Amino acid sequence: MPERPHVILSAAMSLDGHLDDTTPDRLMLSDDADFDRVDALRAASDAIMVGAETIRRDDPRLVIRDPERRADRVRRGLAEHPVKVTVTGAGALDPEARFFTTGGHKLVYCADAAVPTQADRLATVPDTEVVAAGALVDFPGILADLKRRGIERLMVEGGSSLHTRFLAEDLADEIHLAIAPFFVGDDQAPRFVRAAEFPQNARHRMTLAETRPIGDLVFVRYVIESGSGS
């Protein structure tokens, strides 16, 4: 198994496991204190990954908000913001999305067939690379490439399909969850993970490493013991 970064899956979800609802407006699951926790985790990461659907749906910036944290990274010889990474099969990403117009270096991993189209769409976006990731998007291959680029700690912020792939393929080391005290109650709303055959099951339980309240949320951190850890 090729070496890979230490992978942390990060999400906020409702009590019934939803990342959002189905309304046009973004569902606010976290509070300011939890946003600050996420900002600190970003600042401690070498790269942040989201899926293409998250870029289309949420238009995230994925930058460090706290100027002191940015300054501390620069003092340590790091870029002001972590590398931003996304993965897409079809390659239809908008160059005007905030993922591309903010922050520093961007990596776009595409299915091989989508590389020419996506490279053309992003040709005018500064500091952005489009990288072939295999016919069906090879996640171990992506992680091996990130490791070769010096990425030691990767934060994965969703969405459902990415979290599912990392867990089902046994490629994650930790899960950080903030759980909001309400239900969404909509089977059509996106969940933390989709249906899959997970190696983290009743016979192979994860290790509870931390729990603490954050306002009216509960933060939970699990460590995943697997044969594919970094």
TrEMBL record:
Q: Does the keyword Thylakoid apply?
A: no
> Which keywords has UniProt assigned to this entry?
NADP, Oxidoreductase
Coiled-coil ranges from the UniProt annotation: none
Q: In which pathway does it act?
A: Cofactor biosynthesis; riboflavin biosynthesis
GO MF entry, a single one: 5-amino-6-(5-phosphoribosylamino)uracil reductase activity
Gene Ontology terms describing biological process: riboflavin biosynthetic process
Do you know which Pfam families this protein is assigned to? Answer: RibD_C
List, alphabetically, the InterPro entries matched.
DHFR-like_dom_sf (IPR024072), RibDG_C (IPR002734), Riboflavin_Biosynth_HTPR (IPR050765)
Q: Which PANTHER family match?
A: 2,5-DIAMINO-6-RIBOSYLAMINO-4(3H)-PYRIMIDINONE 5'-PHOSPHATE REDUCTASE, DIHYDROFOLATE REDUCTASE FAMILY PROTEIN (AFU_ORTHOLOGUE AFUA_8G06820)
Which protein are we looking at?
Answer: Bifunctional deaminase-reductase domain protein
**Which species is the source of this protein?**
Catenulispora acidiphila (strain DSM 44928 / JCM 14897 / NBRC 102108 / NRRL B-24433 / ID139908)
